[in-house]
Amino acid sequence: MDYRVISADCHIDLPWLPENLFASEARADLKDRMPYVAETEKGRYWVSKNGAQFGLQNGMGSAGRRYVPGQIHRSDRMAEQGLYHDGERGIRRLTEPDLRLKDQDLDGVQGEVLYGILGAAMRLGDNDAADEMMRIYNAWLADFCATHPDRFAGLATIPSHDVEAAVREVARVAKRGALRGIEVANTHDMAPLFDPSWEPLWSAAEEAGLPVHYHTIGPRMDYDYDTMGHLQRRQAFAVHITSFQLAMSKIIMETIYGGVLEAHPGLKLVIGESGIGWIPYILEHMDLEWEDQFKDLTLTMKPSDYWHRQCYATYQSDPIGIRLLDILGEDNVMWGSDFPHPDGVWPDSQAFIARELADVPEAIRRKIVCENAAKLYGFGA
Predict the structure, then answer these.
(1) Minimal CA–CA distance to 284: which of 301, 302, 299?
(2) How far apart are the C-alpha atoms of 40 and 35, rounded to whole Å?
(3) Which 3 state secondary structure label does DSSP give 336?
(4) Residue 244 above 90 pLDDT?
(5) pTM given for the model
C-alpha cells in the first residue's frame, strides 16, 4: 500500500451497525437488555427496553440524527454523495468494509483509525449490559478490520466505570491481536486519571503495547435548558460546540501531573478530535506551574517533555495549531477527517489539507497526514 494520507480520527457509530448484532451475540441473561431496532411512527430507531435512545437507524453522526437539508453545511456535502439516502434504503456504507473503502477512496484516504460506540454504551445506563455491549462490538470490529488490515486500524472500546472489567477487556483484545489500540470511556463522573485505581489499566495497556485513547465529549454543561427560550438554547449549544475540544486539557493535565507517563514510559496517550491550537498554552502553563510550585510531584522532567515523549493529538481543521508546530512537536500531531461525523471534512479532506498545510515543509506535512499515524498504528508493518 502506498500510504499518502491516513486519517487518525474516524468513527463507527452504533446506528449503522447490523441491527441484530447485540441481541444475537449477547449472553442469554443480557439479551433483553441490549440495544435493538424498533419500528416507530417516526421511522426505525435504535432503542433499549429500559428506555435508552440511540437514534435513527443509519442516521447522522453518533447520535443518529435525521439529516435536515440546509441545517449543517458539512452534512449537506455528505448528503451530496448519497450517504444518507443510501442509509434510508438500508445500504450500510459505513459498516460494510468494501463500501466504506470506496468512500475513503473518494476522499483520498488510504488508512483510517476507527473510534467506536462508547457514547452509545454510556447512554444505555446499565453498566453490566454496557460491558457486554462493548465486548460484542470489539469482536465485531476485529472481524471488520481483519477484512482489510492494511486500511483499518480499530480501537477497542473499554469501560471506565470498573477498572477490573477494563483490564479484562484489554487482555481479551490483546490476545486476539486484531485491534491497534484502546479507547477508554471518557465520562464526566469518572475518577480523575491520577487516582491510583487506574494503575492496573495503565500497566495492562503498556504491557499489551496498545495506545490509550480518550475522545472528546465536550465540557460538562450546567445550563438549565428547561427555563430557556429557543434563542438562549441555541446560544448555550453554540457555547458547548465551540468549547468542545478544550475539555481535553483535563486528560493531559491529569495524566502528566499524576505521574502516569513517568511511571509508564512505554505507554502512548492519544487525545482524539481534540484540536491542537490550545495545547501549546497548556504545555507552557504546566511547565510554569511545575517550576513555580509543584516540584514535589512525582516527575523527573518538566510536563511538556512527557507530552513530546508519549502523547499525540488529532485534528481535522486547525490553522492556528499548524502555526504552532514548533511548540506542539511535528511528531505529536495527526490529522483526521472525523468521517462520517457532521463536523468532519469528508469528502473534502484533500482541499482542507492542501489549504492548511500549504506553507508546511513537505517532510513535516507527510508526518502529520500520514507517517505519525502509520508508525503508531503499524500501517504498512
Answers:
(1) 302
(2) 15
(3) coil
(4) no
(5) 0.96
